[in-house]
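Lay summary. Proteins are chains of building blocks that fold into shapes, and those shapes determine what they do. In this project we predict the shape from the chain. Here is one chain we studied, written as its sequence of building blocks.
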Amino acid sequence: MTGWEGRLGPVPVERKVLPVGMLQEVRLQQDMITKGTAGRKTFRRMNPQFITIHSTQNYTGNAYNHALALKRGALRAPKRRGGNRIGFLTWHFTVQDNVAIQHLPTNEQGEHADFDGPGNNYSIGIEMCEHRGNDLARTIDNTAKLTAFLMMEHQIPLRNVVPHYHWPRQGLNPPNKNCPHFLLDNGRPGRNWRWFLSRVEAHYSRLVPGPVPRI
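And here is the predicted shape, written in a compact code that computers can read:
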């Protein structure tokens, strides 16, 4: 048992839920980056095949702060050949202990993983908040629930749920980022990451057939 499991307890797998019910459990809210602005100046279609899990490493910003920053175009990154393609950081969801906020449709590419690689081209990016006062264990559990829903929506297998670490970043040292750092062991996927995948799998087992909202 990991420390996270001790704080959360086991997933109540007997408590079945419709897909829309799982979104209600994470309290999904949509607050999209406006089309044609900031990180959505151009539409970049995506057929998602992976889900990439991140942590913000921002100890003052909550999910609402990140949503506002994304909409304002405040999260800039140097645009360069072989690097960031649009001059902004973007991702699909930010999760904290009591809400998950959506910033991009899941059929649209973000800029959160590996520049012009499969992590950006084919994966949904989820950021977990770390601000003071946020219950990180509950944030992880909400992320596992959201991941389970997205697996069902897009028929993504559990083996394609990966940490940011999974995607090497060309031209950076180290190429594989220690992210999400609190779910890795010594900077690499290990026992904690395997536990997280088991949490996702357990929540996925709670889902029963029903309408699946397209988000």
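What the prediction tells us: The chain is about 30% helix and 10% strand.
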